């Protein structure tokens, strides 16, 4: 537990935090310079003593001797649109797609290709066909982003024209669409945060789905379809490609990072926190409540953080920033 | 199995159809419009 951030602080409290209470002849200079125990440099520089005279007890404000290393986003995944994908499979589905289980997915993406269909993510219960899944897709012909539950060849979906929501997306032309040279509203490195939320109990798809571009919800819906949903377990998933095909027309030309899956409908304020003013970050630095799992790629593989799926990369690459 | 081109109902009423191309919806319209789209490819 960290030391207090202000007010009176005692040598004995600093010693206890450092785990050196039994040391004889404790003194501030020794505590500050690491004589009695090394200072944990995982603390921010402002939250630990600098070791230089003059030493001040206030330099220990907020010092946490057990602080973990701060998260550093070092890697991302690239899906180049030619036979690339991340395959996810499990025998125990971490979420179900039905009329009772809410969920949300959020991810940073960077468009790297020309105007074409993009299968961003899809999760369902089979790799044998495309009938049963929830898909998050970009439809090039319509310049729309869509969330669709497709079960037994029936659609429950909501779609938004990116050009109809140009204030949020920054994409103004349907004919130009979403491309590497028309990325819309992105951060300084070309990334945007895409988030969809699914409120399962809603019978009208227009009320069930929301999509956010960065921290802004898309407000101008193109169409919604409220067909009957048949429950399925999300035992299979693919990122960047159709569940049942390889090297298909919808193979995504997207870089991905910090893909997060939640067991709830994220609120608007939570999406703002996820957006993090355009700084790509993991759940520990943004929203951890309700997290099922996340793909950060920082361990140089496609494993999800809570091992809900067994994941493997086909053809795609993990790159460093 | 959704093959290269398939024409599938979009809505339950059966008034709107979609052309699916390799597992992705690619065109939307009446059944006749969708058939014409496929024929044009």
Profile the largest sheet of chain A: 8 strands, antiparallel
Strand content of chain B: 35-45%
Largest sheet of chain B: 3 strands, antiparallel
Q: What is the helix fraction of residues of chain A, given as a range? A: under 10%
Q: How many alpha or pi helices of chain A?
A: 5
Could you list the spans of chain B in which at least 5 consecutive residues all have pLDDT below 50?
Answer: none
Compute the CA-based radius of gyration of chain A.
24 Å
> What general outline of chain B do the C-alpha atoms trace?
flat
Notes on the structure:
The complex is a heterodimer of chains A (321) and B (41). By secondary structure, chain A is mainly β. Helix content of chain A is 9%, strand content 32%. Chain A contains five helices and 18 strands. In chain A, the strands form three sheets. In chain A, strands 1, 4, 9, 10, 11, 15, 16 and 18 form an eight-stranded antiparallel beta sheet that branches. In chain A, a hairpin with a 2-residue loop joins strand 10 and strand 11 (216-217). Chain A is elongated and about 75 Å long. Chain B is an alpha+beta fold. Chain B has one helix at residues 31-40; strands at residues 5-9, 17-21, 24-29. A three-stranded antiparallel beta sheet of chain B has the order 1-2-3, covered by helices on one side. Chains A and B meet through loops of A and strand 3 of B.
């Amino acid at each position: 537990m960290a030391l207090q951030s202000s007010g009176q602080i005692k040598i004995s409290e600093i010693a206890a935090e450092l785990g050196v209470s039994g040391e004889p002849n404790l003194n501030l200079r020794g505590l500050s310079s690491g004589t009695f125990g090394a200072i944990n440099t995982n603390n921010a520089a402002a939250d630990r003593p600098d070791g230089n005279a003059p030493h001040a007890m206030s330099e220990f404000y907020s010092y946490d001797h057990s602080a973990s290393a701060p998260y550093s986003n070092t890697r991302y995944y690239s899906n180049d649109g030619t036979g690339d994908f991340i395959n996810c499979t499990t025998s125990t589905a971490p979420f179900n797609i039905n009329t009772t289980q809410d969920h949300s997915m959020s991810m940073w993406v960077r468009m790297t290709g020309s105007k074409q269909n993009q299968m961003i993510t899809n999760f369902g219960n089979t790799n044998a066909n495309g009938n049963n899944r929830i898909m998050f897709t970009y439809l090039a012909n319509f310049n729309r982003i869509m969330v669709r539950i497709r079960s037994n060849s029936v659609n429950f979906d909501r779609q938004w024209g990116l050009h109809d929501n140009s204030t949020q997306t920054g994409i103004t032309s349907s004919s130009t669409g979403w491309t590497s040279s028309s990325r819309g509203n992105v951060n300084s490195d070309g990334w945007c945060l895409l988030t969809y939320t699914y409120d399962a109990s809603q019978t009208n798809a227009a009320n069930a789905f929301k999509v956010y571009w960065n921290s802004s919800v898309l407000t101008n819906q193109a169409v919604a379809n409220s067909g009957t949903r048949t429950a399925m377990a999300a035992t299979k998933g693919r990122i960047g490609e159709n569940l049942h095909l390889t090297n298909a027309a919808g193979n995504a030309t997207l870089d991905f990072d910090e893909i997060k899956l939640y067991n709830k409908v994220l609120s608007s304020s939570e999406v703002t926190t996820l957006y993090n003013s355009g700084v790509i970050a993991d759940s520990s630095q943004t929203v951890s409540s309700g997290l099922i799992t996340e793909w950060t790629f920082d361990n140089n593989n496609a494993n999800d953080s809570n091992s809900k799926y067994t994941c493997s990369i086909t053809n795609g690459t993990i790159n460093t920033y | 199995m959704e093959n290269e081109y398939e024409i599938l109902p979009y809505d339950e009423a059966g008034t709107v159809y979609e052309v699916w191309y390799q597992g992705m919806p690619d065109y939307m319209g009446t059944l006749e419009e969708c058939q014409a789209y496929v024929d044009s490819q």
